[in-house]
Amino acid sequence: MLAPAPTASAANELKPRVPVVWAEGPCTTIVDQSTAAIVHFDYSVSVEEDPEDRTFDEVDDSRTHQFFAFRKQDLPANDPPVWISRADIERARTRDPNVDPQAITPDMVLEDATRFAPDEWVRITPDDGRVPITFAQAAIGVDWDTSEVEPGTYEIWAYTWEPQGNIWSRRQGIVKLVASASAAADAGPSISLLEDQTQIVARSPYTPPGCADVAPGTTVTLEWGEKVGTIVPQWNLAFEHQPIESGPLAFVFEPPEAAADTTTIVLRATVTDDTCRSYAAYSSVLDVLANSQSGEDVEVPRGKDPCSDGGGGCSIDQRSYAGLVLLPLLAWRRRRRPRP
Questions:
Q1: Strand pairing partners for 226?
Q2: Which of 20, 126, 180, 316 sits CB 3.0–4.6 Å from 169 for a disulfide?
Q3: Could you tell me where the beta strands, DSSP code E, fall in the chain?
């Protein structure tokens, strides 16, 4: 007779998941879909996973990687939902009695979550095409065939499928798809804020690392907000509708005085072109250290709103639309965070 199915905690519950380690690359990768629709990404893994090591309560394709592209950026630490589909949940439930579909809310499932609309993300690899976590597989890298993908600006994410502790790994920089060189402007503006040092000083000028790819006449608005968990901050205006050009970012942010010794903030930069298309990017989490030198309140620079016509203008959509002039961009590397 068969022994009853185990009901204890999942055997792999406390096992560390293996993330994708993305190779460093340019801040913006521009893909002309009319001439070279396939874009390649390099990555590595720190350790290999042996399928023979899967525990009794793991699905047959557990301990694999999958790749996605997202048109909308989100706050740092707000990873995409931990489940991709209800089908995945049902498969996991058949092996692990601790998987309770009733306890998994829609916001925990990518296909159901309202945080990302259906047209704001695409699978680079299908659910049934997840790849093994091995050195040999990582050496191959991943190819994204964009020939049937809507032009725009995308962030690339890797997903480690090992229920229930599925995790995500975000690639630095953005990928911009343009239908053709002549139609590049139709994709809209884009901007990227790269991960940076974790500490900046109040009232000391700071230029976040990153890049923009925008048409002439595009402006940038910068906001900051205190970061508390995954809650969307109350945004405060740093400056608005300032001209911006393609290339490495050059604007300056003067952090507010810290409420205590340290205030944790995140930046949101939104570029808007003269047709009211926009794209928003977020910085890494920054600790603002108090400045011992007192200073006067900073006046918020305000430029002309390109989308205001005195009668309401056009609404600005914070979704990911991509941008425009095909200028060479410097390959920015992530700065190392200072050791404590």
A1: 265
A2: 20
A3: 21-22, 28-32, 38-41, 43-44, 64-70, 121-123, 131-132, 142-145, 152-161, 167-170, 174-178, 190-193, 199-201, 210-213, 219-226, 236-243, 247-248, 262-272, 278-282, 286-289
Q: Which residue has the tokens 């949940």?
A: 89
Domain termination site, one of 185, 205, 236: 185
Report residue 101: phi and psi, to 5°.
-55, -30
Q: What domain range includes position 104?
A: 21-185
Model-level pTM?
0.85
Residue with tokens 């690899």: 125
| Three-state secondary-structure class, residue 158 | strand
pLDDT digits (tens, 9 = 90+) for 6-55: 444 678 988 999 999 999 999 999 999 999 999 999 999 999 999 999 99
Residues 39 and 129 in one domain: yes
DSSP 217-254: T-EEEEEEEE-BTTBPP--EEEEEEEE--SEE----B-
Q: Minimal CA–CA distance to 82: which of 268, 230, 284, 194? A: 230
Distance CA(287)–CA(266), nearest Å, equals 9
Q: Are residues 69 and 181 in the same domain?
A: yes
**What total number of domains does the chain contain?**
2
Render pLDDT for 213-267 as a digit per residue (tens, 0 to 9).
Answer: 999 999 999 999 998 877 889 999 999 999 999 999 999 999 988 766 778 999 9
Tell me the C-alpha distance between 119 and 68, whole Å. 13
Retrieve residue 304's tokens.
Answer: 């002309």
